[in-house]
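A further point concerns the way the authors explain their paired sequence and structure data. Since the whole study asks how a given chain folds, the encoding of that fold should be made plain. A single example would do more here than another paragraph of explanation. An entry of this sort, consisting of the sequence and the corresponding backbone structure tokens, reads as follows:

_____
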Amino acid sequence: MLDRVLAAGATVIPHCAATAIDRDASGFRVQTAHGVIAARNVVVATNGYTGTLTPWLRRRVIPIGSYIIATEPLPRETMARLMPKDRVVSDTRKVVYYYRASPDGQRILFGGRVSFSETDPRISGPRLHADMVRIFPELATVRISHSWMGFVAYTFDEMMHAGVHDGIHYAMGYCGSGVAMAGYLGMRVGQQVLGLKEGATAFDDLPFPTRPFYTGNPWFLAPSVMYYRWCDRLGR
């Protein structure tokens, strides 16, 4: 996607945090670590990384860490036995695990929630490995090649949202389906910015709920994970 953006002539400036968004007569002035940008339109698409720059949006998304490991390359016959249909797999637990073969078919990518609060991939990696081995015992001696994490964004109504607030376009809250839906809503919001009618979606300007006293810090996440793990142990 980045290659296509660059090929289309867009300018991408990485590692350049926006520090303020102000309205002016022509649109917006976005202050950044490297200067000020004048913009007719602003799109906020920060999802699980929504910060204090946009407090109204930050109150409406819940950042939740997703932790993933990749195994070392496995024999082809092992992959064929463990992943015979080469599909993405999940389970019916409240605190789910999700896994699939890597695109080249040589590794298993295994993800899930392994701690009550956010932790370091160096800690989550061995825990995920242990959980993976409970599902695939024959992988007990297989090593991990990579361990990483990132934040997804859940919403209080479990719906993704797109719309305009105070003149600023936004799209976020994919509830774990961002790989597909972020690309889709990104395209539609871009069309909306251009005033194209095909930019309309069923997610536009839906009520975007929050909760009293919530400001973006999910203090309730740890007790919620604890409760749902208890439900999983009881088979509820």
About this structure: The mean pLDDT is 94.
